[in-house]
Amino acid sequence: MSVAKLLNRSVGRAGKDSLRVCTLKPVEPEHQTIHLSTGENFVGRSRETGIRDNKCSKRQLQLQVDLKLCGVTLKVLGVNPCGVNGVMVMQHSECELKHGDLVEIVYGRHPFEVVFNPPPTDAKEELHSPSPTGSSATETERWDSAANGKLVIFTSAGVTASEKIAGYDMDGTIIKTKSGYVFPKNTEDWQIIFPEVAEKLKSLHKDGFKICFFTNQGGIAKGKIKLDDFKIKIKQIVAKLGVPVQVFIAIGDGYYRKPLPGMWEHLKEEMNEGVEIQEDRCFFVGDAAGRPETGKGVTKQRKDHSLADRLFATNIGLSFYTPEVHFLGRRVEQWNKPDFDPSCIQDQVALLDPDDISFEGHPCEMVIMVGLPGSGKSHICNAFFQSRGYRIVNADTLGSVQKCLSACQGYLEEGNSCVVDNTNVDAASRKKFLSIASNLKIPCRCLVMNLSVAQVKHNIAFRELSGANHSKINDMVFNMMKKKYQEPALDEGFQSIHRVNFKPEFASEKEEKLYKMYLVEK
């Protein structure tokens, strides 16, 4: 290219930059176009903007405009957050804006589009490019499956890989029932939950977000819903929304069911065309958020059925919003935290309380373990007592409580200490073993597993997921034992009662990482 042409191009580009203007173009008719000058600008409640909302400060946003680079640095000054392309931005936070970005001056309210005129030379390509890596959108819809059918994935036509994921639960978040029932009567019983849903998703898609739904559908595994019928429902929902969506459907229990991260991991590893996802640019929206019942009468809001969506977002490291906050701009609601936080395991807690209990060289005795299934009794027996010469008695191994009683009688008569490794949750079951010790004039100590019910349920879920050699515990059996539970007392005939603190041990970093996730929905 000649020097003259280079000079002409340079002059032309400089001239274009000097004539460029930046505006915030209103999406809603009640607002005014906001003209921004190069350098520092303040935007908020004023006659010029047409914003009269008291939740919007007069200086809600600080916008630093660079006309040459076609960029805007946004800082939130107001108490209430703003929204950028559907993502909440809190007070004192900063982020970068570009041509075509959607800014909600207050999160969920007063939307404006960032417009540079003339636009940057590559703005058209940026707005319509398929993905950061140049991968193309899917031309036709398709169905995939993984994990022997435990996970089913629908990819509609037009879905494009992206580093930004807008993630949603489906039932109670994108759709609700027409009938008004909590659960749909059939696959036709649905409607879009809010009028704002479709436009919100279209706006995010325009900004380069990949829209993904993550839904638990245990009813398919139980035969209550036919998979083929549900596939038709998914396609109808996506068509109604009018935006490309990738839908992940967890069928049954296991690692792919929320709050477990299986669906998200499969998206990252297999279903995003090799584009690396940036979790700090993603978010997840769901109605299973642990909110309590509020209001009365017509304003009554049922409590959320679980915490699965909120815990799913926590497990995969995403910001979380409820549908009402995300789509309607309502204030963040109160919610009840889970009873057990697996990330806060107290590794330094002594095993026994008090920690000076002696089992070394102790005369012949009986020890009765007490704890719900999954509380770690067998682990303590195998790791602690077996090496000290105690004989372990367990109904799962011997086959019946009667055989356990006979085994204890024999061990004690031979002068061998023994440990009763059953649940022993009520006084009546403990009395049978205490009677043997009393008749033989053998002392009996009691060790009570010091775990909350929530942690016990977590342990059960962990050992099922990690493939530990334990039989599955039926919910009905577990709840029956929990109801029968009676705290041990000295007047039952125990010489002493001690508490055992649970200290998990892991065979690998992978196991430890799994344990420290939320594994239970409630």
UniProtKB/TrEMBL annotation:
Keywords: DNA damage, DNA repair, Hydrolase, Nucleus
One GO cellular component term noted in the UniProt record for this chain: nucleus
One Pfam match: AAA_33
Alphabetized SUPFAM superfamilies for the sequence: HAD-like, P-loop containing nucleoside triphosphate hydrolases, SMAD/FHA domain
Keyword Isomerase attributed: no
Matches recorded under Gene3D superfamilies: 2.60.200.20, HAD superfamily/HAD-like, P-loop containing nucleotide triphosphate hydrolases
Gene: PNKP
Designated name of the protein: Uncharacterized protein F21D5.5
Any one of the GO BP annotations: DNA repair
Cellular localisation: Nucleus
GO molecular function: ATP-dependent polydeoxyribonucleotide 5'-hydroxyl-kinase activity; double-stranded DNA binding; polynucleotide 3'-phosphatase activity
Chain ranges passing through the membrane: none
InterPro entries: FHA_2 (IPR041388), HAD-like_sf (IPR036412), HAD-SF_hydro_IIIA (IPR006549), HAD_sf (IPR023214), P-loop_NTPase (IPR027417), PNK3P (IPR013954), PNKP (IPR006550), Polynucleotide_phosphatase (IPR006551)
Keyword Transferase set for record: no
Domain of life the protein comes from: Eukaryota
All copies of domain PNK FHA, residue ranges: 22-90
Region (Disordered): 118-141
